[in-house]
Amino acid sequence: MRAKDRDGNYSLRTNTGYLTLINNIYNRNFTGKNNANLTTQYDSNQIILTGIKPGLMLWATVSASGTLSKNGSNIGTGTFVQNGDALSISLKSSDLYNTTVSSVLTIANRAIPFRVTTKIRGSGCTLSSGDTATIQSIFDSLVQNYT
Fold this sequence. Notes:
By secondary structure, the chain is mainly β. The chain has a domain at 24-121: Immunoglobulins (Immunoglobulin-like, Sandwich). The chain is built from one helix and ten strands. It has one helix spanning 129-146; strands spanning 33-36, 41-43, 47-48, 58-62, 66-70, 73-76, 78-81, 86-92, 100-107, 110-118. The strands form two sheets. The protein has a five-stranded mixed β-sheet with strand order 1-10-9-4-7, with no helix packed on it. Strands 2, 3, 5, 6 and 8 form a five-stranded antiparallel β-sheet that branches. β9 (100-107) and β10 form a beta hairpin. The protein is rod-shaped. The N and C termini lie far apart (93 Å).
């Protein structure tokens, strides 16, 4: 890149520098899902893009395990984005207990992961107090009839 002064003259110097295209995009994150059911589709929260230079469109992709939505429409794995776009990721949880799957949204050099972790395998089932009372009543009846 060469700099041009106000008189139209180009600089002969070469310097390494940075071109800032995005600012506030760095404080955007997806909230992970924990204690998820097995083999279930989950949608991330939406993030609204800000901080991209006005009029600039950037390429956004998600890793193949996820599906990208932009402004409420299913896009697939990639699209151009700009200020004001609302992005989210849809991701299927693992078929194994206590396992994390993830999909990563990448915009420019910023990677934003969405993670889904399945619940831990329980040692038993959870019953309501009414179900517990019914089972206890059946058990008591069996004890009386067969002892």
